[in-house]
Write a structure and sequence with these properties.
Number of domains: 1
Shape: elongated
Distance between the termini: 95 Å
Strand content: under 5%
Number of helices: 7
Structural class: mainly alpha
Order of helices and strands: HHHHHHH
Helix content: over 70%
Amino acid sequence: MKKTLVLLIIGMIVFSMAAKDSQAARKSKKSAAVVTQDDINAMTATIDNLTRKVYSNSLFSPEDNAKMIEVKIKLDNQMLVSPDLSLAPLYYKAGNLYLAREYKKEAIECYQTILENFPDTALAPKATQALKKLGVEIVTPVSDEEQEAAEPASMQ
C-alpha cells in the first residue's frame, strides 16, 4: 500500500513537471517568433557597439563574434515569420559590419535580403551599390506586364 502511494505521488510530480515544461516550450516558441521593439533596440545597440569597435580598430572577442551571430540569427528568424520594415536598417548595418570584418558572404546575404524584402525603402539603392562594389551581379525581377510588353517588340 505504501509502495503504491509513493509511486502515485512520484507519478503526479513527474506529470506536473512535464506539463510545466510543455507550457514553457509553447511560450518560448511564441516569444521566439516575434521580435519586439525592445529586441530591435537591443540588436541596434549591439550592432552599433560592434561597429564602434571596428572603427576604433579594437579586437573582437569571442563574445563579440557570438553577439554578431546572434543578431543575424534573430533577424533571419524574424524574416521567416514575417518581414518587418523596421528590420531593413538592421540588415543594412549588419551588412556593413560584416563587410568591415571581411565576412563577404554574410554581408552579401544582408544586402540581398534588403533588395528581396524591402525594395521600396531608401536602403535598397544603398544595398544595390554595396553589392555592385562586392562584384555581385544585380538582376532585377521583371513583372509579367513588362515581360508581355517586351515580347511583341522583340518579335518584330
